[in-house]
Fold this sequence. Notes:
Helix 1 (about 10-20) runs parallel beside helix 2 (about 35-40). This protein has helices spanning about 10-20, 35-40, 50-55, 70-80, and strands at about 1-5, 25-30, 45, 60-65, 90.
Amino acid sequence: MKVGMIGLGKMGLNLVKNMIDNKIEVVGFDLNSDSIDKAASYGAKTAVDTQDLVDKLDSPRIVWVMVPAGKPTNSTIDDLIEKLDAGDILIDGGNSNYK
């Protein structure tokens, strides 16, 4: 199994580490290059942008989005909708404003 992870902050990076520890291949992307480097140090493959991430995944693709709620999540999902195909899986793991 191979999963694309977008958002390599505290939660996303720990999920990457857990998946790699459990023999799941991960391709990671984040706007912060230091976060990408940390994911690579755990054994993740990395992507330079969302298109590169999608291109590195096998179909049907699994993409997990772990970015802040609101505009960052919405714009990331809008971007991915243009790049993913029917049958691909998109997981929105961003937190929400519960109030």
